[in-house]
Structures are given as structure tokens and as C-alpha cells.
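Human:
Focus on the backbone:
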Amino acid sequence: MLFLISVLRNLVSIYTTCLVLYALISWFPGGYQSKFGQFLTKLCDPYLRFFDRFNLSFGGVSFNIVVAIFVLQIIERVLLRILLGY
């Protein structure tokens, strides 16, 4: 059981890091056209497309990634509570 919890935490941590890197790469011209940018796009876009349905842009700034990370953290906590039996 502890192994499963550890794997879950590590996967969420890695994916959260990928989402942050995806956001940061937008600051660089041509960042999404690089090999690393294309990899992050393939990894992050399917999850982020879900949040495109909601209008999460305010003043020209999109908060999709912030909300996506927040939801990912909530899902992790719920799954941990289920696994731990709380």
C-alpha cells in the first residue's frame, strides 16, 4: 500500500512539474516548436483541454494551468484518503 501511495505522489509531482514547465516555455519565442516543447505539448494538452471549456482568462491572462494544478492536487488528496481509508 505504501508503494502505491509513493507512486501516486511521485506521478502527481512529476506531472505538476511538467505543467509548470509547459507554462514557462510559453515565455520563450518558438518554445513550443522545440523537441522539448513538443513533448510537453503532447503530455499536457489533453489534460489542459478539459479546462478550456471554462472561461478562465481574466485581463488577457489565462489561469487554466493554475486551476489544472489545483484540481490535480485535490484529486491526489482524495485518492490518498481513499487509499489510506479515511
Observations:
- Helices lie at 2-25, 35-51, 64-84.
- Residues 41 and 69 are 16 Å apart (CA to CA).
- The first strand starts at residue 57 and ends at 58.
- The beta strands are 57-58, 61-62.
